[in-house]
């Protein structure tokens, strides 16, 4: 079949890979100059199936309100009335309770662990490099109260059968000796040995280049303007370079997916949640972290990507704003420097902002759109790098008329209809 993939972020590029592997004729349309240039460019790099979970959690609304009051709050939201945000927030609030959290977490865990297995298989079958690093993740706690929450998380991991270990300060420092120089307290940590990290931009670039060498066509600097359809069936897309026809079209346009499908009456509840990252060069390997660290105190994730450190965090519900706020960069630098004071060139750190394509409940929206010829691969939120390969494989299986290897209950748009 001829299949059109719209968007070459980590989700679209991975989708193109599985479709190509299934023997389809694949074309990818991307408005930017290359693959992985938007949200997939500067994320934290965490491949973290162990703690993939929804932002909608019990007590979260109160926590968000409390955080907003703090100076340098990691969370912000705009009070400007916007129908799209209000509608998303209303749905999100409905998910912030224990029963819904459990359902959503299990759905995301199902995707995330499957996805990590798919990524490992992909790495074995392609010659791509992307600073992959499988040394586990330390979820770091600075206070006893945070350690208590860590224990609750550990119990949930035990219930799910996920490999983990609660560590005291000494054991945490033994796993990541660079923390010995931290100027903030390390009260304890939750070690997730099965998690990893990697550069999703490098992954996209390398995979797209390899796919192009195998015959997949990438139309860069080409904007998708509209879906083409006749008699209720989607037949491709009109682009800035002209029409492209296909038997199946897959929408993998991150935050832009809702606007594309809306004229067909498809309501995708995906809203951008802004975050920031810094990337800095390691100048002394002995003093920089090798293990990925999720600092629970600041909610900042720090990953080692080759000879660089990437640190990302913050959550701003303020629409499609990608402006770079210098005070956010200072906050990120201050946070990372508190943990790793030396061995990193903070002075020349680059700064980036991205928009996580969030669903209100957390899991992505995969597969059937309700329109013949149109499949969705959207709404990967704050776990899109972790979930990309698994969701891509699911969508490719569906496009090829095969039953996906994981149950897609609760992962399709059906959960919002009704
Ligand atoms: C600060 C931050 C930290 C994060 N950390 C992590 C992490 O540690 N681990 C993790 O798993 N995830 C993380 N994420 C989430 C992850 O980055 C996203 O979920 C993922 O990148 C989404 O991928 P995507 O392909 O859906 O979207 P995108 O990467 O945004 O790709 C969509 C593509 O569609 C293209 N497009 C849009 N409109 C059009 C159009 N009209 N025509 C043509 N092309 C179009 C865009 O240019 C873009 O390239 C983080 C995100 C942020 C912001």
Automatic annotation (TrEMBL):
Record flagged with keyword Nucleotidyltransferase: no
InterPro entries (UniProt xref): FAD-dep_OxRdtase, FAD/NAD-bd_sf
Keyword Oxidoreductase among UniProt keywords: yes
Keywords for this protein: Oxidoreductase
Molecular function, one GO term: D-amino-acid dehydrogenase activity
Cellular component, GO, one term: plasma membrane
A biological process from GO: D-alanine catabolic process
FAD dependent oxidoreductase domain segment(s): 2-398
Family in the record: Belongs to the DadA oxidoreductase family.
PANTHER family linked: D-AMINO ACID DEHYDROGENASE, SARCOSINE DEHYDROGENASE-RELATED
NCBIfam families recorded: PRK00711.1 (NF001933)
Protein name as it appears in the record: Amino acid dehydrogenase
């Amino acid at each position: 079949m001829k299949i059109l993939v719209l968007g070459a972020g980590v989700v679209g590029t991975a989708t193109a890979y599985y479709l190509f592997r299934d023997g389809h004729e694949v074309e990818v349309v991307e408005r930017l100059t290359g693959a992985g240039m938007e949200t997939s460019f500067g994320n934290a790099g965490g491949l973290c199936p162990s703690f993939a979970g929804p932002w909608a959690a019990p007590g979260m609304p109160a926590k968000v309100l409390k955080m907003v009051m703090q100076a340098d709050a990691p969370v912000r939201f705009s009070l400007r009335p916007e129908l799209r945000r209000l509608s998303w927030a209303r749905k999100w609030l409905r998910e912030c309770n224990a029963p819904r959290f459990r359902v959503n977490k299990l759905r995301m865990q199902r995707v995330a662990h499957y996805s990590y297995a798919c990524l490992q298989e992909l790495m074995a079958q392609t010659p791509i490099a992307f600073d992959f690093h499988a040394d586990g993740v330390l979820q770091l706690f600075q206070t006893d109260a945070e350690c208590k929450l860590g224990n609750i998380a550990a119990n949930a991991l035990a219930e799910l059968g996920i490999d983990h270990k609660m560590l005291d300060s000494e054991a945490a420092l033994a796993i990541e000796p660079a923390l010995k120089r931290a100027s903030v307290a390390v009260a304890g940590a939750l070690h997730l040995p099965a998690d990893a990290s990697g550069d999703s931009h490098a992954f996209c670039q390398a995979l797209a280049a390899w796919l192009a060498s195998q015959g997949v066509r990438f139309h860069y600097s080409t904007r998708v303007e509209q879906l083409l359809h006749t008699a209720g069936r989607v037949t491709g897309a009109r682009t800035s370079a002209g029409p492209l026809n296909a038997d199946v079209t897959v929408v993998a346009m991150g935050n832009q997916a809702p606007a594309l499908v809306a004229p067909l009456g498809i309501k995708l509840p995906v809203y951008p949640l802004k975050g920031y990252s810094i990337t800095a060069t390691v100048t002394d390997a002995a003093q920089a972290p090798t293990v990925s660290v999720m600092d629970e105190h600041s909610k900042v994730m720090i990953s080692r990507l080759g000879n660089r450190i990437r640190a990302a965090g913050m959550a701003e519900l303020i629409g499609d704003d990608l402006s770079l706020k210098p005070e956010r960069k200072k906050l990120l630098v201050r946070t990372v420097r508190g943990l790793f004071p030396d061995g990193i060139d903070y002075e020349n750190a680059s700064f980036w902002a991205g928009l996580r394509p969030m669903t209100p409940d957390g899991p992505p929206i995969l597969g059937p759109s309700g329109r013949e010829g149109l499949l969705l691969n959207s709404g990967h939120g704050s776990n899109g790098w972790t979930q990309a390969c698994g969701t891509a494989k699911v969508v490719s299986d569906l496009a090829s008329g095969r039953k996906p290897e994981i149950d897609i209950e609760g992962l399709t748009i059906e959960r919002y209809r009704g």
